[in-house]
Amino acid sequence: MSIGPDEDRVVNALEHLEADCTVALHWAIDEKRWDDAYALVHFGPPLALFCPRHHLVDLLAKAARKAEPAPAYLPYLELWLDELDIPTVECNRRAWDLWDSGWQPPTDRVSGTPLESIGGDVSTGLRPEQLLAALDRIDTAPFPTRVMAHYMVLADLAGTVPTIGQQGLDNFATMVATSGSTTARGLNHGLLGQYASIRGDWNAAFHHFTEAVRDGENAQGYLLGVRTNWFRIAAATMAGEHVGNPELAHAWRLAQAIRTPPLWGACVTALVLQRQERHELARDFRQWLANNDPGGITDVFIGRLPGAAFVAEPPNTELIDLPELVDELLYATDRSGDPART
Q: Any idea what DSSP says for residue 113?
């Protein structure tokens, strides 16, 4: 895995090596070469840690549980596997327990860190000041490890305590500027777009998200790239730019290709349809969100918008099929680009 001046060459090479990586991981496990196995689960393009190959992580974790002694990184692997399926408060507790125990990322190979698993807000154990300060402890880790940890921490703080997160932006920009990495530059633009949107500067947000999507071409097949593209469409809408059916359809096809969670896409689509005065379809997207978003993504989204830009629906028992709504959007675009219904 590489984030740096050679990242495009590495991406091209990695496209042909995934099968070899799986074979190598089985060999490393059989030979009990646990450090080599750990390196292999981080195999992938520059943003692989944002969308890890969980079947490889699961394979290593199962073998590591049987090892005597178990590799020190086993609790981190288990957190990595569980974080999408457990409550935020439990995820934060486990991540902070790992971090407070003195956990350090390797200095000779790329790794994730428990910091990327911490999210939510103060009520779920975010500990914002400590989270920002924790970044100082990984300054001897390889550049990709540091970039991803800084990005995830600053992105989390943008949505909860932006005044604290803002303090880390200059340091991140300096780190990126000397890297020669297009991907890292895209991550920096993505952060600047998030903080601009929180300030309500939608023109700046649209500019930075557009640059982030352009620089982050290698991220389009990952959750981060898909989410950044949704942010760009939302900022464009709020900045008064025209967003048409083809653009929404392209964003949904990107999301469907990697089976990303649909909540951000549904939020942004509802916003765009509302601005297009396609009220019936917009309401159906909003109602689906009201009935299917226990984690509060919609509340976070609305919190970044002024006034009545997005009117949430109250939850009810109405059964709405999101794939059917998206298919209706795609069908209208495939036929003519014109809405099938308002």
A: -
The structural domains of the chain, with segments of one domain joined by +, span: 1-82, 242-342
Q: How far apart are CA 203 and CA 192, in angstroms?
A: 12
Q: Which residue carries 């042909």 as its tokens?
A: 16
14-37-104 Cα angle (round to 5): 105
Instruction: Report the alpha-carbon distance of residue 261 to residue 84 in Å, rounded.
Output: 11
| C-beta separation of 342 from 281 below 8 A | yes
Burial of 317 per CB tally in 10 Å (0-12, 13-18, 19+): exposed
- What's the token pair of residue 137? 């402890």
Whether residue 91 contacts residue 79, with contact meaning beta carbons closer than 8 Å, is answered with yes
Packing angle, helices 223-238 and 182-199, rounded to 10: 40
* pTM of the entire predicted model: 0.84
Residue the block writes with tokens 């549980």: 65
Query: Are 258 and 226 a contacting pair, CB within 8 Å?
Result: yes
- Helix, strand, coil shares of the chain, percent, nearest 5, are 65, 0, 35
Residue matched to tokens 């596997």: 81
What would the pLDDT profile of 70-106 be if each residue is shown by its tens digit?
A: 998 899 989 988 887 888 889 999 999 999 999 988 8
Q: What kind and span of H or E run contains 271? A: helix 263-275
Contact present, 246 and 334 (Cβ < 8 Å)? no
209's tokens? 């998200």
CA dihedral of 174, 198, 208, 154, whole degrees rounded to 10: 30
Tokens encoding 193 = 């777009």
The stretches in the chain having pLDDT less than 70 are 1-2, 8-16, 43-54, 216-223, 295, 307-308, 332-342
